[in-house]
TrEMBL record:
Residues 523-614 form the Fibronectin type-III domain. InterPro entries: Cys-rich_flank_reg_C, FN3_dom, FN3_sf, Ig-like_dom, Ig-like_dom_sf, Ig-like_fold, Ig_I-set, Ig_sub. Keywords: Disulfide bond, Glycoprotein, Immunoglobulin domain, Leucine-rich repeat, Repeat, Signal. It comes from Pogonophryne albipinna. Residues 1-22 form the signal peptide. This is Leucine rich repeat neuronal 3. Residues 421-514 form the Ig-like domain.
Amino acid sequence: MKDVSFVDRLFVGLAMASFVVATEERPDCPKLCVCEIRPWFSPSSVYMEAQTVDCNDLGLFSVPERLPLGTQVLLLQTNNVVKIDKPLDYLANITEIDLSQNNLSSISDVHLGNLPQLMSLHLEENWIRELPDRSLAEVANLQELYMNHNLIAYISPMAFQGLSNLVRLHLNSNKLEAIKREWFDPMRNLEILMIGENPILSIDDMNFQPLSNLRSLVLTRMNLSQLPDDALTGLDNLESISFYDNIFPEVPHSALKNAKNLKFLDLNKNPISRIQRGDFVDMLHLKELGINSMPELVSIDSFALNNLPELTKIEATNNPKLSYIHPNAFYKLPRLETLMLNGNALSALHRITVESLPNLREVSMHSNPIRCDCVVRWMNMNKTNLRFMEPDSLFCVEPPEYEGQHVRQVHFREMMEICLPLISPESMPGQIKVKNGSSVSLHCRAYAEPEPDIYWITPSGTRVQPNTVSEKFYMHPEGTFDIYDITEKEAGLYTCVAHNLVGADLKSVSVEVNGYFPQPANGSLNVIIETVETNSILISWKANRGTLAPNIKWYTGSDPSQPTTAFTTRVPSDIQVYNLTHLSPATLYKVCVDVGSIHYNHDTKCVNVTTKGLELAAKDTEKWDTAVITVFGNASPRLQLTLEEATGMHSPFFTKLWVSGKGLPSGVNVKATVINVSDNAF
């Protein structure tokens, strides 16, 4: 083991010799600098070992008088150089110069000389204010120019004349207010342009037309709110574009149509509220889409991503209001493999959504407020080969009996096959303040099985159905409610109702116009007993407009030997008649109607009424349509009204009722019906 072969000794000796040659002090190496061989990659990613002179961070006020003739890479970063007086054209092999983080204030102070081999020039983080004509024409073979984080406010139309070989140009974080097409005429071979974080006032049509070879365009943090339809015309080879952290209210789909070879699209951190059908039309080569960290994104609507045959990955993460993905949001995406949806406000992901993606391999749904009911039942049925990323962070938030449990540990048989709608609280705020003459969109989305229908109730009590045409209102099929040309007449409380055959949910938002919100008219709440039967009581009430959804409570307590039974239900604000059925004969009931306002004021009226005795039952026949609630002891604090029969009543008008019981005896059946007699819907 002590013997070492001659070959081994030779290799060790050569290695040590090469190290000494590479690191030993050279007589022509500037004082304090380091001269050595280092790895280097060309702009086209070709690897080579380059003679490097490293004079970084030495406090130098000028370039060293004399540099080694064989220098290929010169590093002068983080010094105090204000001017380059003497050309460096004696460095025949120089390929890269880094002058970033110095005190250069004018490009005319940078006299590099004729450097035919120079490929990369770094001038980041200096104090350069403008680029005059032919600023760097003497380095005609330059391929990479980095001028980020300067103070450039003006670029001459002929500034880049002579740089026909440039392939990468970085102008991020300057003071530019406009982009001129003339800049790019000399740079027909440019492949990468980064011009983000400039206070650009607008982008014009044909701005980038000369850049037919451009592959990557970065337009980040420029306060862009719109993009002209022909802004990207001429970019026939564009593969990647970033609009990160702008202020687009919607996807600039008309402009994107011209980028037909786009593969990577970054829309992250824009205040886009909806991803809609047609947003990504004709993007046949798109591979990855980023719609992360969008503060206003509420929903991905039906067929929003349609016919994207090469799309493999969607990232829609960390969107605090994203609470709804339509079951048919993704259509004809045959190659989609990865769906990232973590960190949103999603209560569910519909089974149909997953089944429409034949090549889907992995889904990220963790860190969402999952509601473990029928909509997510498919996750635990072992009928999918999907891999859920970070399953240990996938928890149930609702219903209360499953709160805190891992979603995939709740057996699918414990979840109902049908369930009532739930409007996400993140989908719309409780209050909106707008100016006179403006427009606003209110977004309402709900998951349920069967899929719910949605309508809106205006402050005047008008019921607005999907696709209803009005001068002031329009409701989209997905649930978005648009209000146009707002005046004080449109101020008030707007209520969204989502309902299916199981039940319904409702949520209200107050719209304040120029500080005005209508106050409830003076007047008390009136509760009227319309009819009394053996097993039913029909009540009606009159409340002021603009009030919140009423709560109705009824209970018995006449017999001290029997436990008190109490029920509470909530109905939409446009409903003013309610039928309690399947009650006990000859029993005293106390019925209360409670109507609140956005100012937290409540008006409550109660009436005592006794149902008819059995001797009158044979004379009368109950004529009201009914919905059935079955209460099983104290097992569930919230019960649903389910439709038993609705003769003569269209399902869109049948409404959800949250019903809660206190001290309920087991096996009690209670019927309650909302009778739609309101004529103010249309």
